[in-house]
Structures are given as structure tokens and as C-alpha cells.
Design goal:
- The protein is an all-alpha fold.
- The protein has two domains: 38 residues; 147 residues.
- The protein contains six helices and no strands.
- Helix 3 runs antiparallel to helix 4, helix 4 packs antiparallel against helix 5 and helix 5 packs antiparallel against helix 6.
- The radius of gyration is 35 Å and the shape is elongated.
- The N and C termini lie far apart (107 Å).
Length: 220
Amino acid sequence: MKTTFLILLLSLPSLVMAHGGKKHKKDSTKAPMDSTMNMGAQKEHEAGDTTHHHDEGMAIDESKVKADLDDFPTLHPLIVHFAIVLIIVAAGMQLLNLYFMKKEIAWIITAILFVGVLAAWVAGRNFHPHTHGISAHAQLVLDQHDKWADWTTYSGIIALILQGVNLFLYKDKRWAAAVVAVVLAVSSFSVASAGHYGSQLVHIEGIGPQGKYLEMEHEH
């Protein structure tokens, strides 16, 4: 018994060295996991603090959710979307009516086209915001937007005149309706292109949100 105890006592330093010289495999795996978890918790805590301080710094006015027209830096986007939708709808209906050739549908197309062209005219002439301090690249985008907006208005007016001539002079003439459809297709492509460049100005160039780069005092 004494001999066994003596052997265990002598071998104890070796056992300690064997386990103390290197990390246990399970411990070495746990250490990075604990570190990762701690870093994640720290990030969540920092994000929570940021959100908390952000909420504390901003007072939310729950009594007014819908903005008034005077709150907008420009009414151009509110008006021009009518032109985009109505002109494209009128073009689609005109193509469809080439098959049916219904006078009632032609009158509906005329009414839709009239409102769409009027919206394009008002948005481009009366509610077109002036800009200042924009980059050279943004100016190129703006020039393209204005060019296609002009094409939209002029081709829409031509289509409206041709539609009136078609209704009163060339009654039930498919070829006359086809000419109107071609001009409306040009107007639809133009308004879509103008909308593309307009979206690029806002969402990529950053012109317009909260009145940025707009000359508010010169708006019509």
C-alpha cells in the first residue's frame, strides 16, 4: 500500500506537466467560440446603444404622418407620375383597340391621353425644380431627363391631335389608328426614359430628397 502511494506521488508531476503544458482540445475549441460570442454580444450591445441614443435624439410626431403639399421641396414627382402612368396606359389601350376598333374605347383613350399630356406639360413647365451645385455627371443625367421629358410632351401632343383627327375625320380607319399607336409608342418610350433618368437623379445622384441641390426660392 505504501509502495503504491509512493509511485502515485512520484508520477504526479508528470501528470500535471502532461495536462498543464498544452491546452485541452475541448478548451481550445471553446476559447474561440467564447471569444466570438463575446464579440457578437458586444456588437449587439453597441448596436442597441446606437439605436437607443438615436431614438432618444429624435422626437416622433405621431399627430402628423401624412405630409402637406407645402412640406414637399417640389411637387414635380407627385404630378409627373400621372403622366408616366396615363401615357403608357393610353398607348397600351390604343394597341389593343387596333383589334377591336371600338369608338367608345377610342374616346376613353383620348381622355386618358389628354390628362397624361396635361400632367407632363405642367410637371415640365410649371413644376420643374431648378438645381444648383450639382456635379458634372449629374448635369449630364439631368440633361437627358429634360430631353426625354420634352420628347414625351411633344409626341403626346401630336398623338392627341392625331387621335382627334382620327375620331372626327378618319372614322373607323385602322391605318389611322395605327399611326396614333406608333406615335403613342414613341411617347411611352420617351416618358419611360425620362422616368429612368429622373429616378437616377434622385436615388443615385441624390438630387431632390429633402430639397437637396434644389433652388427652392425659384420654384414655380
